[in-house]
Amino acid sequence: MAWISLLIAGLLEIVWAYFMKQSHGFTRLWPSVGTIVFMIASFALLSSAMKTLPMGTAYVIWTGIGAVGAFVVGVVLLGESLSWMRILAAVLVVSGLMVFRMAPGGGSH
């Protein structure tokens, strides 16, 4: 259950990052409200996952999902630039997450 909570927390991090971009520096009400609501939900699920998972593992996975997901959303929905270096960086993040997860202690206390 902790891994599911962590996955959802990471996905919600992508959502709140998108809403934060849409808030234009918290000058637009509803995207600002969305940012805060999804941020709280994401942190709550991360906290729940950390009851079982090691802090380092949970935080690295959460930030990795958010970072790569925000990159994809930026390119697909916001028209941000796509270059081989940005793709390589995203691949390296995902590779690092996989190695971190497989490392001793990466999935349990």
From TrEMBL:
It is a multi-pass membrane protein. InterPro entries: EmrE-like (IPR037185), Small_drug/metabolite_transptr (IPR000390), Small_multidrug_res (IPR045324). Keywords: Cell membrane, Membrane, Transmembrane, Transmembrane helix, Transport. It is found in: Cell membrane. It comes from the Bacteria. The chain crosses the membrane at residues 27-46, 58-78, 84-103. SUPFAM superfamilies: Multidrug resistance efflux transporter EmrE. Belongs to the drug/metabolite transporter (DMT) superfamily. Small multidrug resistance (SMR) (TC 2.A.7.1) family. Gdx/SugE subfamily. This is Guanidinium exporter. It comes from Brevundimonas staleyi. The lineage of its organism: Bacteria, Pseudomonadati, Pseudomonadota, Alphaproteobacteria, Caulobacterales.
